[in-house]
Amino acid sequence: MRVVLMGAGHIGQVIARLLSGTGDYQLKVVDCSVVALKSLSHLELETELVDTSSAAELLQCLQGFDAVINALPYHLALTVATQAKAAGCHYFDLTEDVAATRGIMALASGAKTAFMPQCGLAPGFIGIVAHHLSQKFSSLREVKMRVGALPAFPTNALKYNLTWSVDGLINEYCHPCEAIHNGELIEALPLEGMEHFSLDGTEYEAFNTSGGLGTLCDTLKGRVQTLDYKTVRYPGHRDLMKMLLQELGMQHDQATLKAIFRRSIPLTMQDVVLVFVTVSGERDGQFVQEVFARKIFADRSEEHPMSAIQITTAAGICAAVDLFREGKLPMSGFIRQEQVVLPDLLANRFGSAYEQSRQVESIG
């Protein structure tokens, strides 16, 4: 399968390594950074320096390829998807942006090629898990989805280190959050809905952020009374972000806030990803609950060290492309994450990364 990977950044590097090592993909990686592309010189793949903000250049580099994996910033998602449709390429991305996903869904209507956005961790894997659990119930009452990508050793006041895209981080803190409450589709405010819990003796907080539900509200609308997604952080993080974004008004000057974060908050490869899903409802005449909980840790091997967020995000999109290549997903139109069968994903050579983690035994 001939694939263009757009973006050789933090996640793109891992995607390139995973796919190029299989022998099943003829891979070309494009980026606007010479340095990023040179870092892939040890892999068996083609590279091309491209102005990724230019629709014309994007279209040109897609010609003759079967699919494109978009690992560029979220604000380029619709541009890349539009050029993929023009080039006749299947499209996969990692976006958490709700508006971009809606635009891609419109592009996919009647298309001869497939469009599958949101193939990462959240949205992505978390929605696949929630949908899988929900299928076990005759009626649903509540679906709660919680995900956190956290530094293993927090040392600053925010109790946070950069583990992934600053653009994506600020975006999810600033936009309305889809949810279902009392059976009705609503928009909740970001950074609200605070809750606290402990897991394995560690205290956490969780609050509303945008995009993590993917298309699950549409899929479960009319079936569930309560459905929500919240981001997990260490206690105190939400209050400081709310002060910066809302009280100091930096939600209206995101460029400055992003620059401050990139300058002042260090990147870490020593992180942990927490995945926690609870589903409750009726089954066999009883009110029951099912829980899926995982902690995924960074791979600190000397040869190929990877952060937990790199592992979980790259595994999600590589597994999606692999399942598509194997004919286990629709071949055209819009593909929702919840159309992925969880056992198929976990049995996949890439998706198995979610099984090579530690299951959480208790919650308080």
Description:
The chain is of the alpha/beta class and 364 residues long. The protein is built from twelve helices and 16 strands. It has helices at 12-20, 34-38, 55-62, 77-87, 98-108, 125-134, 166-174, 216-220, 237-247, 254-264, 308-325, 342-347, and strands at residues 2-6, 26-31, 46-49, 67-70, 90-93, 114-116, 139-151, 177-181, 184-188, 195-199, 202-208, 226-233, 271-283, 286-297, 333-334, 358-359. It has a seven-stranded parallel β-sheet, with helices on both faces. Strands 10-11-12-7-13-14-16 form a seven-stranded mixed β-sheet, covered by helices on one side. Helix 3 (55-62) crosses helix 4 (77-87). 47% of the residues are buried. The model has no long low-confidence stretch (mean pLDDT 94).
